[in-house]
Structures are given as structure tokens and as C-alpha cells.
Amino acid sequence: MSESESVFSEFPHKSLRSAALAAIREAILCGQLRPGQHLVESDLAEQMGISRAPIREALRQLETEGLVVSLPHRGTFVTQLSVQDVWEIYTLRAAVEGLAARLVAQNATAEEIAHLEESVAQMEQSAEAGDLELLARQDMAFHEYLCRAAHHNRLLDAWLSMNAQIRTMIDLTNCLYLPAEEIVRCHAEVVDAIRQRQAERAARVISGHIWDVGERIWHEMEASARAAAEGTVSRE
Hints:
This protein has helices spanning 16-29, 41-48, 52-64, 83-107, 110-129, 132-149, 153-173, 180-195, 199-235; strands at residues 38-39, 68-71, 75-78. The mean pLDDT is 86. α5 (110-129) packs antiparallel against α6 (132-149). The chain has two domains: 16-78, Winged helix-like DNA-binding domain superfamily/Winged helix DNA-binding domain (Arc Repressor Mutant, subunit A, Orthogonal Bundle); 83-230, Four Helix Bundle (Hemerythrin (Met), subunit A) (Up-down Bundle), CATH 1.20.120. It is mostly helical. A hairpin with a 3-residue loop joins β2 (68-71) and β3. A three-stranded antiparallel beta sheet has the order 1-3-2.
């Protein structure tokens, strides 16, 4: 897709800033706007049929979410995540969700535990059907619900601040980095620990799972970077 081609064919008629924010965010998350792509306010405004002001406000919000970066005298670009970015996101996520799992195991209601059990059952169905795209969405929904069930507002804010970048990594790599059966098994073990009120076990399992995924991602990124560098050298 060329940068001039519109990815906003149907623009909703609601708050212009909110609509622009939602449309640009989704275009980034689903890969229609690619990492490193230059985002020109006038082009986006023309595609959406609105003024530049709501676009400018939306881009500022997306910068706080880490989805775009504004460079002096150059403009605004879709963020390209580095190995360091991935390491920071996943180490922080492991700490945040470890605390969430501990709190949920200590305080969850029967209804909240039942919701987590149903989430794992749905993930198992998707894994058996080979629907990895649906499994990835269910995986993210499980983790978000876990953080919400902790009833810790600042913890949830920290997780949500990483959510968009985590989604971007999953969507752009189109990879879960673990076998589907292993993902289901890990989440089932977390729920089992929560059900039995084993707070430290729940925290250990979820943190270990996140560390494992994070390590696989940043090691693959390092390998890709080395391969690209070697290819450049060989062509010189």
C-alpha cells in the first residue's frame, strides 16, 4: 500500500479527535500504517475529510502511547520498536502481571475466577481449531482481565500503557512465539493457582511465561538484525 493511499475509507461521524485517534491507532495496530512510515497531518486530514487540528491532537495522544514518535524538523513517524524497547516492555510487563496474579489469587471473587476459567476454555477451543489469530486476541483479553481483576488502578494504568505496543508486536510479527498448546497450558496453570489461592505460584507462572515470550522476541530481533548487517556487508 502506498503512503498516499487512504486506509480510512469509512470515517465515523462522532467526536473528530476521538474518531481520528481510533482510526489511526487501529491502522497502526493492524499494520496498514507500517513501522517507520511518515505520518503527514495534511495527508491524514485529507483522507479522513477533516481539518488538521483533530489529527494533530490524535498524533500527540498516540505519541504518549508509544505508537508514534515526533522528530524535530522531520515530522511524525510510526514507531519502530528496538530490541531495547521489547526488553523494557516485557520485563516491566512481567513485574506488573506478577503482582496482578498475586493480588487476584488473594482476593478474587468466585465470579472473577469463573471468568478466567471460561477464558482459558475459549483459548483451548481456538488452539484445537488452529485459529491462532483468535487465540492471540483471547490471550491479550485474558491478561487485561487479570489486571482489571487485581482492582489496582495504577497497576492497570501501567499495563494499559504497554497494551498498544504489545499488540503491535504481536500483529506485525504474526507470531505467538510459543506453541498454542503451551500457551493454553500456562494460562490454565495460572488459573489453577488462583483458584487454590496460591498467590506466589500464580505470580511465578505468569511472570515466567511473559519472560519466556519476551526473550524469544528480542532474541529473534537480534538474530534478524545480525542477518541484515551481514547481508549488507556481503553486498559491499
